[in-house]
Design goal:
Rossmann fold, 861 residues, single chain, alpha/beta, 31 strands, disordered N terminus, 16% strand, six-stranded mixed beta sheet
Length: 861
């Protein structure tokens, strides 16, 4: 900031000088350059030499002039493209007729301070120069390539409304018109390059990458924009290192060690060629391979990195560059460069010595400043350029040079609109502005408005930020015949009508690892059926894959959370799909259902067989003694009990739910009522033997039948009210077992169900008490004893049924209920009728009146 105000003060002071003093020496700026006079002179700043030699001031003597080393053929071709475009315009009879353009070009040495010095020299003249010229108008500057250099120039001259057009400064910060009001460029902003790079990373599924940035505005702003974009796609940056051409070797080694330790397989290098090259050399020296490099526009097509030696480590590098263009006429222009034509120019001398790898000696007293490295071979300047095979002369794939070419033509069209306001007949134009009085702010205003189609068919214009339309080619490094070839494998167009468009021909890409797309992830993707769990203290790309909980699924890769299955669905074994829950009910087709059905049918058959035996032997004493009417009625109720157990098997529906509970309640009420009747008969028979007893008349056969039907009628009424008010109904039980749907019958009214069971229990208790009291009656066939056993079994079964019923899961709940019905039914059948059938069938000698009567009274029971 202090430098900015200092330079602003100098420029304002200079404007106050007269024209003659403005061209006087302003300091010892000995800056190498190229110059040609013209009516209007265009300034140019280029990094012809790409590195400053370290100059350590001891504060004891005047510091020596900082020398520049490393002649850059690529940057020198940019200067020649500018000169070529100016000569082409000077020969054009339509564009700026009768107006000659000149140029003054100086070296920036790829340094912001030297770039600023070069710009001041262009605008204010210099002390030590071989040219003898007055003070031409320089209303615009073309430059610089590096963003840091352009920022330094723009911040100094922007407030004075001096326009500048950069051909290679891509920092997005330069689009800020508050900071850089008069800055234009013919190369797209890094804002678009960052978006393109982010989409490239997303396209290939790289989520774990690293960045290396130049320690300047270009690198910092580029990586900042890129990082902001890739974070939208869930990409993590493992580490970010900085490089600069002036960094010590120890810093380079530190970066290399970071790369070697990291698991990252994809690295973006957003730096200029000069800043990145020392790191590239060390990576090649240590033979680090297996890294896929993504390149920024600044170095992907640069000649120095693109060598066979570097290909082992950087082969397959991929990046974006401006659209290429061929200018065939430029080749002849480049081949005509001769040291003899400009013997005092250090640019030409440096070019000649670099291209021929020699030391140039034109005269015995060679006093020109050549800062290239010393070569042992001597050259004379008569060597032939057309015999040299160098990419310098390849004008078929021009990118930055074409940007310089467009910048010159943009200035020419702005001057055309400024100087000539009306076209006359033929090629005549009317002058509207004095050429010698053109001011920079006028050129700036007309640059904002230009829009023309050049001879290559491209429409050239600047948007409100001074940027051109953003379009890139995607370049991939291939090795062909020992030469690194920059092969286009796609493009990115940010000016598409349908939005940004990324097109990639993946089949044409060669990766550092071969033909397979490299993978770079901190953690492998979580497969369907799992979810991502972020590791504490680590980036979001580093995670653990946790299986989904039961009943939850994830059907996509890298799911953040699992989805709960709908209520009637459950997760499959892989937890990647919801499948219908298993339907569970006690079926006739399963083993358990078949077993219970078989037992019920066996009980039914035994009951029918018993009834057959009883009816067939109805006239025998033992049958007569036990009241055949009640016995047949009891056997009929047992048939109903065995049959009702079958209603509990099968899929529950409305009618089976209503039938199974009411049928069960009525059947058991009838059976217990019959047993109660039998018990009363036994008790009354005993009481009837007492003197003056009238019990036999009170509890005769008719009265016994009334008791049975009355007791059963009460249960029928309870069941009717239950069915009318809140009947049982089928339901899907989803809570008992999360993996299954249990089909069961809801009892409807709990009170109704309780009354049904309670009534049966009450009848059972009465029977048990009466039978227990009559268990020791003096007869040979004491039926009261067998009724006691049957009621004891009945009560024991149903008392154990309650806890078993509550604790049994799923279909086993129904199975417990069926088991209780069958057990109690078999208990009544076996205890009451098996002793009778045993005597009838196996002991007929005991089936006599004498045996039956024994000590019993001679009354019909």
């Amino acid at each position: 900031m202090h430098l900015y105000f200092l330079m602003l003060f100098i420029l304002v002071s200079l404007e106050q000088l007269d024209a003659e003093s403005a061209c006087n020496p302003i300091g010892k700026f000995s800056v190498p350059g190229l110059y040609k006079d013209g009516d209007i002179v265009i300034g140019g700043v280029f990094p012809v030499y790409n590195k400053e030699e370290p100059n350590y001031a001891m504060f004891e003597t005047e510091p020596a002039i900082t020398k520049c080393v490393g002649f850059d053929l690529r940057a020198f071709r940019w200067t020649q493209a500018m000169i070529f475009a100016i000569q082409e315009i000077n020969m054009d009879r339509i564009l700026l007729p009768n107006v000659t353009l000149g140029y003054t070009i100086f070296d920036s040495c790829a340094s912001p301070t030297k770039a600023l010095r070069a710009a001041h020299t262009i605008l204010n003249g210099q002390e030590e120069t071989q040219y003898n010229f007055g003070c031409p108008s320089v209303p615009v500057i073309i430059g610089e390539s590096g963003s840091s250099q352009s920022i330094a120039i723009s911040r100094t001259f922007g407030p004075l409304r001096m326009p500048m057009i950069s051909y290679f400064s891509t920092c997005a910060c330069l689009s800020d018109k508050h900071e850089h009001p008069t800055f234009f460029r013919t190369v797209p902003s890094d804002f678009f390059q960052a978006r393109a790079l982010a989409q490239l990373v997303k396209h290939f599924g790289w989520t774990w990458i690293a960045t290396i940035q130049g320690d300047n505005e270009y690198g910092r702003m580029g990586v900042q924009e890129f990082t902001k974009e890739v974070k939208k796609y869930g990409v993590c940056v493992a580490f970010s290192e900085k490089v600069l051409r002036t960094y010590p070797y120890s810093q380079i080694l530190k970066i290399v060690e970071t790369i070697k330790r990291s698991t990252v397989k994809v690295i973006l290098a957003f730096a200029s060629e000069g800043d990145l090259y020392p790191l590239m050399q060390e990576i090649v020296r240590q033979n680090i391979t297996g890294i896929q490099w993504i390149a920024s526009e600044a170095w992907i097509t640069a000649a120095r990195p693109s060598t066979k030696e570097n290909f082992k480590s950087f082969g397959g590098a991929i990046g974006f560059v401006s659209r290429e263009m061929a200018i065939p006429e430029l080749k002849e222009f480049l081949l005509n460069i001769r040291p003899s034509l400009d013997s005092g120019n250090s640019f030409v001398t440096g070019f000649w010595e670099t291209i021929f790898q020699c030391t140039l000696h034109l005269t015995e007293d060679n006093s020109n400043q050549t800062f290239s490295e010393t070569n042992s071979e001597i050259c004379t300047g008569q060597e032939r350029l057309d015999q040299i095979n160098n990419a310098f002369f390849d004008v078929t794939k021009l990118r930055v040079a074409y940007n310089v070419y467009k910048a010159v033509y943009a200035i020419a069209h702005a001057l055309q609109d400024l100087i000539f306001c009306q076209k006359g007949e033929g090629y005549s134009f009317k002058l509207c502005e004095n050429i010698s009085n053109i001011q920079p702010w006028q050129v700036y205003e007309h640059l904002q408005k230009i829009k023309f189609k050049n001879r290559f068919g491209e429409i050239v214009y600047f948007d409100e930020n001074g940027d051109p339309a953003a379009a890139y080619d995607i370049i991939n490094w291939h090795l062909k015949n020992g030469i690194v070839d920059h092969v286009p494998v796609g493009y990115f167009d940010a000016s598409s009508d349908t939005g940004t468009k990324l097109v990639i021909n993946e089949d044409s890409i060669i990766w550092n690892s071969g033909k397979m797309v490299p993978k770079s992830v901190c953690t492998e993707s979580c497969l369907p059926g799992t979810r991502k769990a972020i590791r504490t203290g680590q980036p979001i790309c580093c995670f653990d894959c946790i299986p989904c909980a039961d009943g939850n699924i994830s059907n996509e890769t890298d799911s953040v959370e699992c989805m709960k299955c709908p209520e009637e669905y459950w997760s499959n074994a892989k937890k990647d799909k919801c499948i219908p829950k298993e339907i569970e009910f006690l079926s006739f087709s399963e083993a358990f259902g078949i077993t219970l059905t078989t037992v019920a049918l066996m009980g039914l058959c035994f009951t029918i067989a018993t009834a057959t035996v009883i009816i067939y032997n109805k006239n025998t004493p033992i049958v007569k003694a036990n009241n055949i009417e009640l016995s047949c009625l009891l056997l009929f109720s047992l048939v109903l009990c065995f049959l009702c157990s079958l209603t509990f098997i099968g899929e529950p529906v409305v009618w089976t739910c209503m039938l199974r509970h009411t049928f069960f309640g009525i059947a058991f009420a009838l059976s217990i009522s019959c047993v109660l009747g039998k018990t009363i008969v036994v008790v009354t028979a005993f009481k009837a033997t007492l003197p003056n007893s009238n019990m036999a008349k009170l509890f005769g056969p008719v009265q016994q039948q009334i008791i049975v039907f009355a007791c059963t009628a009460v249960q029928i009424i309870i069941c009717a009210l239950w069915l009318n008010l809140s009947p049982p109904f089928p339901v899907k039980n989803l809570k008992h077992d999360k993996e299954k749907i249990i089909l069961e019958c809801n009892i409807g009214s709990a009170i109704g169900y309780s009354l049904v069971l309670g009534y049966i229990g009450m009848l059972s208790c009465i029977c048990f008490v009466l039978a227990f009291l009559a268990r020791k009656l003096p007869d040979n066939f004491n039926e009261a004893k067998y009724i006691t056993f049957s009621m004891l079994i009945f009560c024991a079964v149903w008392l154990t049924f309650i806890p078993a019923y509550v604790s049994s899961p799923g279909k086993y709940t129904v199975a417990v209920e069926i088991f209780a019905i069958l057990s109690s039914s078999f208990g009544l059948l076996v205890c009451i009728f098996v002793p009778k059938c045993y005597i009838i069938l196996l002991k007929p000698e005991k089936n006599t009146r004498q045996y039956i009567m024994g000590k019993m009274p001679s009354k019909r029971l």
